[in-house]
């Protein structure tokens, strides 16, 4: 891995705030496009479905008291770099959650970047050798020191996905089961993990 001081230097191309990345999602939806160099029909379809999921989470998700308390207790200034793409189904579920967490405290500065514009950065944070997203890279806001990372999905779902892959499940079946898991879980596992991580990172 790169020296932690130089990780931010690996960020290339456009960077986004939560609001500007949200606007990009809307723009891509309206233009019948997705992010990244590939504009395959199936990727565009995923991106359109993801935008609808994103909006549904913004409308319906209510953070728990435990999460709000963990955010309020953050003392350490942090820079969060979220690596993602518009076509990623996990990102559609998790980006609005991460954006909400960051919005609740001035201690967290959230920057969003596209994976395929930042492969050198992405390759510092592989998951089982793959460029899985979303990937949240957490840096000390003053020194740039690497504090931690989180992603590409909650641990319980990551285990379920690994089991599906091991069983040879078709891609479309895995995608459907992942989205079903999120619908049933309602971000409860994600919240629990972030309460733990915020206590770890932010003290």
Q: Detail the poorly predicted runs.
A: none
Number of helices: 8
Strand content: 5-15%
CATH architecture: 3-Layer(aba) Sandwich
So, the CATH homologous superfamily?
A: Glutaredoxin
Average pLDDT works out at 95
CATH fold descriptor:
Glutaredoxin
Bulk shape: globular
| CATH class category | Alpha Beta
**Largest sheet, strands/sense/barrel:** 4 strands, mixed
Number of individual domains: 1
Give the helices and strands as they follow along the chain: HHHEHEHEEHHH
Structure description:
With 203 residues, this protein is α+β, with helices and mostly antiparallel strands. The chain has eight helices and four strands, in the order H-H-H-E-H-E-H-E-E-H-H-H. It has helices spanning 18-31, 41-60, 65-72, 89-103, 119-122, 155-166, 171-185, 188-201; strands spanning 78-84, 108-114, 135-140, 146-150. It has a four-stranded mixed beta sheet with strand order 2-1-3-4, with helices on one face. A hairpin with a 5-residue loop joins strand 3 (135-140) and strand 4. Helix 2 packs parallel to helix 4 (89-103) and helix 3 (65-72) runs parallel beside helix 8. It is globular and about 45 Å long. The relative contact order is 0.17.
How would the blueprint of this fold be written?
Elements: H1 18-31, H2 41-60, H3 65-72, E1 78-84, H4 89-103, E2 108-114, H5 119-122, E3 135-140, E4 146-150, H6 155-166, H7 171-185, H8 188-201
Parallel strand pairs: 1-2
Antiparallel strand pairs: 1-3, 3-4
């Amino acid at each position: 891995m790169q020296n932690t001081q130089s990780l931010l230097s690996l960020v290339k191309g456009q960077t986004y705030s939560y609001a500007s990345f949200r606007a990009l999602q809307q723009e891509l939806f309206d233009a019948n496009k997705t992010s990244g160099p590939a504009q395959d029909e199936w990727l565009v379809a995923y991106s359109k479905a993801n935008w609808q999921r994103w909006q549904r989470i913004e409308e319906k998700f209510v953070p728990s008291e435990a999460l709000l308390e963990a955010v309020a207790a953050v003392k350490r200034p942090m820079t969060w770099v979220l690596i993602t793409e518009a076509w990623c189904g996990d990102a559609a579920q998790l980006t609005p959650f991460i954006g909400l967490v960051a919005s609740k405290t001035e201690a967290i500065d959230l920057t969003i970047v596209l994976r395929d514009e930042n492969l050198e950065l992405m390759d510092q944070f592989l998951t089982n050798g793959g460029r899985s997203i979303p990937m949240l890279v957490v840096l000390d806001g003053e020194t740039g020191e690497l504090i931690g990372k989180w992603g590409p999905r909650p641990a319980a779902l990551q285990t379920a996905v690994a089991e599906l892959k091991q069983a040879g499940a078709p891609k479309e079946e895995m995608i459907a089961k992942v989205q079903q898991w999120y619908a049933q879980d309602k971000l409860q596992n994600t919240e629990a993990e972030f309460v733990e991580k915020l206590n770890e990172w932010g003290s």
